[in-house]
TrEMBL record:
Taxonomic path: Bacteria, Pseudomonadati, Pseudomonadota, Alphaproteobacteria, Hyphomonadales
Family: Belongs to the membrane fusion protein (MFP) (TC 8.A.1) family.
Protein name: RND family efflux transporter MFP subunit
Source organism of this protein record: Hyphomonas oceanitis SCH89
Coiled-coil residue spans: 118-177
Signal peptide from the UniProt entry: none
Amino acid sequence: MGRLVSILAPLGIILVVGIGGSFVLHAIKPEPEKADEARAGLNVFAEPVRRGDLHLTVEAQGEVRPRREIVVSPQITGRVAYVSPDFIDGGFIKKGQLLVRVEAADYELGVVSARSGVASAEQALAREIAEAELAQQDIKDLGLDNASPLARREPQLAQARAALDGAKAQLKDAELALDRTAVYAPFDGRVRERNVDIGQVAAAGSTLGRIFANDVVEVSLPLDDGEMGRLGLPLAFAATKDQPGPKVTFTANVAGKPRTWIGEVVRTAAAVNSMTRQINVIAELKDPYGAGADGDAPMAPGLFVNATIEGATIPDVLIAPRGALRGEDQLFIGDAKHGKLSIRTVDLVFSDTDGAYIRSGVNAGELAIVSPVQAAFDGMSITVMERLEDGTVKVYEPEEDGKAATAAATTATQGAEGTPQ
């Protein structure tokens, strides 16, 4: 018996120690971490649809050109005796300013000779008038009633009068030639180029230079039919006081700085270009070197400018992100409450880089998905995420067990299967 006790006692002690140890270990072991349940569906970014006004614009490009530009040419031939110091490339000129003068000596002699001819013709006419009066008196004294016109010296008198008229015409021609030895500016403007100098013989009709008026410059902007429709312009448009043309904002870099000028559309070209199927819209800027300039930067001829033409305004449209538009007229809408994707066909008015403008098919405040979604279908499970202005991401939790959906803010670096387009 004692031997049995000696055998069982150690076994009992071991059993008691084992059971007690297991209770102690169970009591002190840490609770297992509960992993968050993974969200169901694809993570997508979305942006809310909002309401606003659509200001239609059309972008175009063109080269600035003066409305009036002429070639300076003399009407007579002669040696150049004077050239205005302002008649140089880039020079400013005034209306009526003398630009070039041709030597006038030969033409002054022509005027003197023509005046002499007039004096001789006047003397001949006076003599003929006196002789005609004597002939009339002789016919009366002789009592002749049927004297011929030649006897009354009527043809001779008519010839003398015609000779005087011819002499006066020659005098006017000589004086006109003398006046044409001076070439004057027909308008205020600038000199584009000069091709003459003192001592050079200039022939009638030769090119002395080119000048243009600086009161108005034009830009021809090619537009297609759709762009004309956005502007609300007919093919035969001409601006009037009661119906002014659309406002145009011109931009270009001048001397390394962005510059802006404000003009307006004044007319359309007479015909559609048969090669491009476009029509040119002519926009003008008044006083490009003065009030119309951007500070010290005029909109000079030859400058290539971008033009933004203001079109019609459509009030109260729905505006979705441009990246949310799928195809021509579809949006993917994220139902944050139920975590589902909805494919909508919308009535699209217009789209550009700033957004898609819609009449109907979606409601303001709905979330338009901008992330790429492969093989999308109605009711597809998604988790909607919205990137906020402060850089954080708002995650919309789908509704569970009758509770409203909640939203949590996480850092903007939180992973997602899609990124905005």
